[in-house]
Design goal:
Layout lengths: L2 H13 L5 H7 L5 H23 L7 H8 L2 H34 L5 H16 L3 H27 L6 H8 L8 H10 L6 H4 L11 H31 L5 H6 L13 H31 L5 E2 L2 E2 L1 H19 L2 H42 L1
Antiparallel strand pairs: 1-2
Helix pairs in contact: 1-7, 1-11, 1-13, 2-9, 2-11, 3-9, 3-11, 3-15, 4-15, 5-6, 5-13, 5-14, 5-15, 6-13, 6-14, 7-13, 8-11, 9-15, 13-14
Subcellular location: Membrane
Pfam family, one: Spore_permease
InterPro entries: Spore_GerAB (IPR004761)
């Protein structure tokens, strides 16, 4: 399995660690979060195997090309439109969450518009990069940032301030049936493979996952899911953290580097995740732009020889994003993220697998006819 698929999955997972996912998991801690994590891990690995295997039958093709070849237009266009809006919404949530984090913990005196404008410049440049360049950029940032994040997490695990009794109490909840909200939120973490709807264009020789690759991926997924949930609880306990919007920010502020240049690592920690967050937004919106352009592309939107469909879409993206970031509250954001995880994530994955299975069946049928 290509290393870039690991990056697609792990960047999506790690970006969620400081978002609202930990709060959603902790809010369901008394009603089956543990089994939800286990179930999401198993189903996430199975879905990763299925999606990579299905996309391997269409080397070098994104979902727009696959549906164009094997599905009628009346079916393909609504599907691509739905997927494009879903990917945009996922990126919008990440943008909004990280904007709130920056204002609340890093630069409370800075204007909201200045922060969003900074995102506009960086993300817009990244969105219009070629898919393979985005993957190479994600690799560089992943290699630079993730070792530091893992180092901080290891310091957390070996810290004297970590109360393992809190972790044991959390583990005792294993006798509860899975919580649907915690399950879908965990499932969203592990489905970065779905970005292959566009990034599969880069993989002209995509191979099916091997047992070694799936085992390694399962280890990483289990580590991230367990760390996302248990470490914040271990530092503060249920009572102190259950109403906290960003549990991992509080946790990172509890970890010290006694002999480091900067003792409080929360600022470096947020900065590291901010880099991953920008990459995640770029990936989501690049996928969204490509999907929506395949549906809304028009020869009328031309200036000289340059088609303006994608630039017009990015202008709409930022107009909507600015409005949402300015008007939404943290409680409203939590509500909408939970709704997206509960309803759109399962529907999106189910629909994607259905489309690929149907396209594979159509491709096999065409191959048999050509042999005759």
């Amino acid at each position: 399995m290509s290393r870039f698929i690991f990056y697609l999955i792990l960047i999506n997972m790690m970006t969620s660690m400081v978002s609202l996912t930990p709060r959603i998991l902790i809010s369901g801690s008394g009603s089956g979060t543990i089994l939800s994590l286990v179930l999401a891990l198993i189903i996430g690995i199975v879905m990763t195997y299925i999606l990579v295997s299905l996309f391997s039958h269409f080397p070098g093709l994104g979902l727009p090309e696959i549906l164009e070849a094997y599905a009628p237009k009346w079916f393909a266009k609504p599907i691509l439109l739905f997927f494009g809006l879903a990917w945009y919404t996922a990126g919008l949530f990440t943008l909004t969450i990280y904007t709130i984090i920056i204002i609340r913990f890093l630069t409370p005196a800075m204007s909201l518009y200045t922060i969003v404008l900074t995102f506009v410049i960086v993300v817009t440049f990244g969105v219009f990069m070629k898919a393979h360049n985005i993957l190479y950029m994600s690799e560089i940032i992943f290699v630079v940032v993730v070792p530091f994040i893992v180092f901080i997490q290891m310091k957390g695990y070996f810290s004297r301030d970590l109360n393992w009794d809190y972790v044991r109490v959390a583990l005792m909840e294993i006798n509860h049936l899975p919580d649907y909200g915690a399950f879908t939120s965990s499932l969203f973490i592990v489905v970065g493979t779905a970005n292959l709807v566009i990034f599969n264009r880069v993989f002209t020789q995509l191979k099916k996952p091997t047992g070694k690759g799936i085992t390694l991926l399962g280890f990483f997924l289990a580590y991230v899911l367990a760390t996302t949930y248990f470490l914040p609880i271990g530092f503060t306990g249920y009572d102190a953290i259950k109403n906290t919007m960003f549990p991992w920010i509080m946790t990172s502020d509890s970890i010290r580097m006694k002999f480091g240049v900067i003792e409080r690592i929360v600022f470096l920690f947020i900065g590291s995740f901010l880099a991953l967050g920008v990459v995640s937004i770029i990936m989501h919106w690049h996928v969204s732009i490509q999907l929506l352009s395949s549906v809304l592309y028009s020869e009328r939107f031309k200036w000289k020889s340059f088609n303006l469909t994608s630039p017009l879409l990015i202008v709409i993206f930022w107009a909507v994003a600015m409005t949402v970031v300015v008007k939404i509250t943290t409680d409203g954001l939590f509500k909408y993220v939970s709704m997206f995880d509960n309803y759109f994530t399962p529907a999106l994955l189910t629909l994607l697998i259905f489309c690929l299975l149907s396209a594979r069946k159509g491709a096999a049928s065409k191959w048999r006819k050509s042999k005759k």
